[in-house]
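Task: sequence design from structure.
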């Protein structure tokens, strides 16, 4: 087996709205090559490996698979001030692969979108300690 290869391009924009607020966006593209796939005509690709708790062993792999990932991410962040902070992120993406049969398919990780929210508050306990609520 050879090493898999990856080519990546990212274009980002970071805008400080105020002293405590930031808006960040990124557009990305990743091209994968020499991905291990089964030598016989099948849908197996190592790209999907790890998506399940148990994965059966596969034999006779060759570096002929491909993959690509592309999308956009947007982050809105409030830095820790006045004892609180928060972070909101959203991502729209595609994740594709081509196995030994030559057909392009969605990877098992292709959820098309992700939205996350995180926040926290710090309580002062005495002169030297804090308690964080996340």
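Answer:
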């Amino acid at each position: 087996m050879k090493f898999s290869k990856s080519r990546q391009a990212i274009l980002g924009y970071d805008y400080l709205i105020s002293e405590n607020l930031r808006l960040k966006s990124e557009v990305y593209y990743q091209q994968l090559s020499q991905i291990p796939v089964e030598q016989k005509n099948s849908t197996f690709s190592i790209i999907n490996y790890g998506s399940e708790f148990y994965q059966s062993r596969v034999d006779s792999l060759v570096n002929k698979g491909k993959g690509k990932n592309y999308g956009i991410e947007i982050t809105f962040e409030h830095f820790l001030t006045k004892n609180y902070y928060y972070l909101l992120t959203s991502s729209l993406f595609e994740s594709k692969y081509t196995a030994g049969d030559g057909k392009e398919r969605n990877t098992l990780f292709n959820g098309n979108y992700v939205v996350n929210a995180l926040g926290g508050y710090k309580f002062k306990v005495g002169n030297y300690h804090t308690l964080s609520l996340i």
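Residues 27 and 72 are 4 Å apart (CA to CA).
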